[in-house]
């Protein structure tokens, strides 16, 4: 079965967590809006009006199933491609961690959009500065410190133990994205999370991920996505 | 098996979505921090430092399992108490909708805390006003319009069809909470969501929910939770 991934064609965004899982698994998939069918195909699926239309991308078509919400897609893929434990307790734990990453991703987005997604960044710069200050003083230490602690408690291989899961791939993306968006902040912070930095590097070196990152399938970071580099927020 | 729910003792907050599911199911549970063990018992679980500590409440202890993240807890409970479909596609669809409600809950919280959770509301009133204006003009119509459309497409009984799921219980809470926090805004908006208003009323009248709402187990809304009534934000 060939999966169809639907997401905005110009950004990594939330779709990237799904792309990384598909790529690591070597799954057969098409990134629909980046091909000839374009964004129109995605809009058509969302306007279906019946069945199970997602409110927003990303969503994944797997045969007749249409699955929305990033963490939900990973829950589905994890079980099928060896990217999650097989036991119920293991699956719930990995999903719990992914939902915690989901919370973090919202907070990363809100550093540049504290007044909401409808206004441009340019129209909310002062609140963005205040939110970003709080993000780096309180929130990053809380979230990344938590994952660092879990990784350490497991001996440092992967977040849930000796086997890679989709959570590890998502944490690669978090570290990679924070480095892009906030190079100064992140440089000063990385000493506090040696395990996560090492995990990032090991994920980047995995054959399938390495090939993906070097390919045109990996959209470069830019200022339309979740991780945006604005100099004034990284002061 | 007696479930142990761990959540802040003074607010409905995110714990309320779990409480509603437990109450509707008639499950045997204890709301730990509201009993003699108090909040200390919750803090102790979070500081465990090994195993599967949650980053934040709510979390549910079910035998040896400790499950964190509201939607993850509902995923677990739904399958055990007839509050979710039995098919994989049905379970994923209900979970997807719950994760969409999770997104909405963050946006509700951010109406009074646009600059982040660390500052007091009193220190972020002007940005809160701007975020709230956007919330009501753009976000509420988007989210609640989406659920209204799905409900309508299903004939209006429940969001996923003829059987109640935990998503219906959560939507009861959303309507109830928005009425508390923004009575004026909500009054003007309710004509656009007749199906959801009707769903709210039918949920409130279910025997187990009705008994719960009239009991002391239901914590009243207040200005420490997610849904806060600030007159200046409801102008």
Order of helices and strands of chain A: EHEHEEHHHHHHH
CA-to-CA gap between the ends of chain A? 48 Å
The main sheet of chain A orders its strands as: 2-1-3-4
What structural category do the secondary elements of chain A indicate? alpha+beta
The largest pleated sheet of chain A is described as:
4 strands, mixed
Number of distinct beta strands of chain A:
4
Range of strand content of chain A: 5-15%
Q: Give the largest interface.
A: A-B, 47 and 47 residues
Note the overall shape of chain A: globular
Q: Oligomerization state of this entry?
A: homodimer
Number of helices of chain A: 9
Poorly predicted regions of chain A are: none
Mean pLDDT of chain A: 96
Instruction: Report Rg of chain A.
Output: 18 Å
Helix percent band of chain A: 40-55%
